[in-house]
Amino acid sequence: MQRRLPTDIARVAASPVNGGPVVPAAGSAWRPVVLVFLPFASGYYLSYLYRTINALISPPLVAEFTLRPADLGLLTSAYFLAFGLIQLPLGVLLDRYGPRRVQSAFLIVASAGAVVFASAGGLPELIAGRALIGLGVAGALMAGLKAIVLWFPKERVALANGWFIMLGALGAVSATAPAEFLLAHVGWRHLFAILAALTAVSAIAIHVIVPERRSDVPAATGRGATSLGAIYSNPRFWRLAPLSATCIGTAWALQGLWAAPWLTDVDGFSRAIVVRHLLVMAMALSAAALMLGVSADRLRRRGISHATLLALTCTSAIAAQLAIVLNIPGLSYVLWAAVGGVGAVTVLSYAILAEGFPKDTIGRVNGALNLLHVGYAFLVQAAMGVIIQQWPVHDGHVPAAAYRTAFAINIAVQMAALIWFVRPEWRIVPEVLAAHPIHQMAAGRRRGNSEAVIGYRRAVEDWDGRVRAARVQAESWRLAAIGSLLIAGVLGTTLMTVALSSEVVPHLIAAEAARP
């Protein structure tokens, strides 16, 4: 396995782009991987580490600064707030100046934010440092994806995205047991000081090592506003965006913060088991990125689209969240792994967008979608803190009902987005038929009462009637299917709740004891 996967990267990197090889001069196929792919992957690795590490350091922060759930939610979501606010300008900057210059400059800001966070004396300084970190790593994913589009062939973008996100997601793995080891030995302040130094090294490496590419900087400028308007008015974009934003944003929000409190307050796990769950989520995220990239590349050859794979993956994640809320025993690691893994569907989301938009606008397109990703993650982290805080704390723990309520509301939003994404797309067939030569020939004969004209009009009316009837029937079946799904969900939830309730256990024990 270790031999085959790097070979895949080299094969993808060696594929032609725009009629010529990726490598600008004669050399090994590994050159773009080493000089382009890996430097940007290091920045994305740090971005993921910063995003998820608050779940690990939240207990010492709460103890040192006496933070409430709402304070903790605001502190963690400040990363996503700054991250989201810069997405649209960032897309324009990437398209105009190229990923190398933009990413190296932004990572310096992230390094400064880590220094501010490490030296914070209160909640305002913590929020300021967290916001600067979010601002600085906001381009990590976008710059990497832009570089992939520039240096790799279009038909291999999903596979390259999978490798890129897999390597970056190792930052989430590092934010669990390895970071816990450092946290126990050096404390959270020194841990962030180390991260600040590593971030500065990554910025310098990208600026020095990554070569320039002439197509990095488009000749035309000043098109940002027009392109963004076209993106946000594109029906294809808005068919994908709600599902992508809610599922990915939820995965980021839970893995970055609320998974650990749930495992502690609802499941009652110890610190070691909580860290183990976070490690499993991070490993699932990294593995899912690569699996989705490879699967998308191979399933596409068999006629299975990226959209179908995206819908199946998101459905599995929503089902896993429902199972967590219903407290199904014995599947904790599997269910939380599914929740963490759905954060990797960015592999599919950005590949879908890359198929429908020009290459020179891909930075703005990805930025428009990523804005919704981080915006929803910010909303989930902050809103869950507000909802959970409505319940009183008992013995240092929040009641399970508070978490279940917050999770259930978020699950409902994701289910609505999934239904929107998979809904049938109807097209008016008569508009297409009107272009047929027979209709053009008959256009001048629609007047009069000749037998040919009357027959033509009757045929058109009959066709229109059949189309309307088919659309009404299809709409009725669609509503019936959605209704059946909702009824099945309600019945299944009710049965599962009853089966897991405490009243059922004594009844079963009594029935067993009554047998002769």
CATH topology of the largest domain: Growth Hormone, Chain: A
> How much strand content do the residues show?
under 5%
Mean pLDDT: 78
The overall strand count is 0
Number of helices: 22
Question: What's the architecture of the largest domain in CATH terms?
Answer: Up-down Bundle
The major sheet is characterized as: none
Question: CATH homologous superfamily of the largest domain, by name?
Answer: MFS general substrate transporter like domains
Measured between the Cα atoms of the first and last residue, the distance is 57 Å
* Oligomer category: single chain
The helix content is over 70%
Task: Give the SSE string.
Answer: HHHHHHHHHHHHHHHHHHHHHH
Shape: globular
The Cα radius of gyration reads 26 Å
CATH class of the largest domain: Mainly Alpha
Low-confidence stretches: 1-7, 12-27, 215-226, 426-433, 500-511
